[in-house]
Amino acid sequence: MAEINVSVNGRAYTRDVEPRTLLVHFLRDAIGLTGTHVGCDTSQCGACTVLLDGRGVKSCTVLAVQANGAQVTTIEGLETNGALHPLQAAFREAHGLQCGFCTPGMIMSSVDLLSHNPHPTEGEIRHALEGNLCRCTGYHNIVKAVQIAANTMAAGGSAVAAD
Amino acid sequence: MYPASFEYHPAASVQDALALLAKYGDEPKLLAGGHSLIPVMKLRFASPAHLIDIGRIPALSAITDGGSAVHIGATARHASVVSSPVVRQKVPLLAEVASHIGDPLIRNMGTIGGSLAHADPAADLPAAMLALGATLVATGPAGTRTIAADDFFTDVFTTALHPGEMLTEIRVPARGAGSGGAYEKNPDPASGYAIVGIAAQVQVSGGTITAARVGMTGLGPKAMRLAAVEGALTGKPATAATVAAAAAHAADGLVFVDDARGSAAYKGNLARVHTRRALARALAAATA
Ligand SMILES: Cc1cc2nc3c(=O)[nH]c(=O)nc-3n(C[C@H](O)[C@H](O)[C@H](O)COP(=O)(O)OP(=O)(O)OC[C@H]3O[C@@H](n4cnc5c(N)ncnc54)[C@H](O)[C@@H]3O)c2cc1C
Ligand code: FES
Ligand code: FES
């Protein structure tokens, strides 16, 4: 076992883990945050996307020990005091999801994108989401949602009240 | 899916990593970004007993301007290579090639040294190393040695690195006026890896091509230079006619098989078409 210290959504966790524990299993099973999904065995679908020190990564392909000392943000860390993050609100508004399985990963990749490119073109959004697969929507409404969120955030909007 | 059990050893320095490699001589594996190793461990194609994490050695990921060459630490992430101002200015071809690796999430974790040491025959970066004439720096118990990119890739998933050695730095000669490069990739639609990738770097002086290096990945057991294409460029006028004549040699000496990725004839055609496109853009960049 190895002891790791990881900050998840701003809260510090110290845990003993088997070195082979994948970050996604650490988040889901050790911490109990099940918003991060597992959609494949081949590191391709992106349903497991989280931010590791601010950058999007596939948490099914990162060992929990590799995140020792790091800051992790998951989908659960986006809302503030019950108010949705602009991306969460925009996915709802634009109908950017159907079954919702890919959505946490789509949103986390989009958070990464907008943090270093606040005004992406449609093409840039599509390229930024290359590592996230959706079997339902056909992607158009996902792209629209990211565009809406980019506009909200550029206009100074932050969180949107959830119902 | 998760890997078989192993012991985990975070290395604090290159010396530390080398000592751990020597200590666990039976079956240790270096862990850089983990984006080739962890997938094969999850599938249980690899079950190393010890993992030595070199991803935490701070100095090993630096990208610095060494004047006549850009020095890239082995654990620099693909995303850092793509966005590095010195890479983009002095060896733009490398940034272009790295931007074709996988997807943005893969590029945030995978490292240049991990990709080169892994030597996947369909990986993108080996083609760039050949086209740019890079030098790879290996460090082992006996000290440091340099390996020309031409000598580094020896076979499928096999390199010139000795057991107990690790890749520590990649030195890429800086490009100046009259030099231009381009990368043309045909990705496998399922995996994203290259069915073929052609990296070309040409030097033009007074309307004549004075030097050309063309690296090919995907269609052979390892990345290789296309010598017949290079030979048909050097000393010739920098024109579309020269490009067309040279690209016709792209599949010379290569043996293709029919498989799920296409027929042998299709692959030969892919090689020629992508070579022509890469050369046309490289020449345009050199004479811009
Ligand atoms: C879904 C997916 C898609 C991908 N698509 C592409 C693609 O389109 N094109 C492409 O080129 N690649 C692709 N990759 C691979 C990616 O580029 C990897 O990052 C890279 O191949 C390995 O780098 P790493 O740092 O993750 O190495 P690791 O996985 O950590 O290590 C790989 C191997 O190299 C060894 N190693 C690592 N560092 C060193 C070192 N410094 N010295 C000696 N040995 C070392 C390890 O022991 C291991 O055997 C893809 C990967 C995934 C998961
Ligand atoms: S679960 Fe599919 S990429 Fe991680
Ligand atoms: S909404 Fe179902 S997979 Fe994307």
Name some characteristics of this structure:
heterodimer; A: 163 residues; alpha+beta; Ubiquitin-like (UB roll); DNA polymerase, domain 1; 5-stranded mixed β-sheet; two-stranded antiparallel sheet; globular; B: 288 residues; Uridine Diphospho-n-acetylenolpyruvylglucosamine Reductase, domain 2; Uridine Diphospho-n-acetylenolpyruvylglucosamine Reductase, domain 3; Enolase-like, domain 1; 5-stranded antiparallel β-sheet; 4-stranded antiparallel β-sheet; 12 helices; binds flavin-adenine dinucleotide; binds FE2/S2 (inorganic) cluster
Brief write-up:
The complex is a heterodimer of chains A (163) and B (288). By secondary structure, chain A is of the alpha+beta class.
Rg of chain B (C-alpha, Å): 19 Å
Oligomer: heterodimer
- Based on CA atoms alone, the radius of gyration of chain A comes out at 15 Å
Q: Which second-level CATH architecture of the largest domain in chain B applies?
A: 2-Layer Sandwich
Shape of chain A: globular
**Estimated helix fraction of chain A:** 25-40%
Averaged pLDDT of chain B? 96
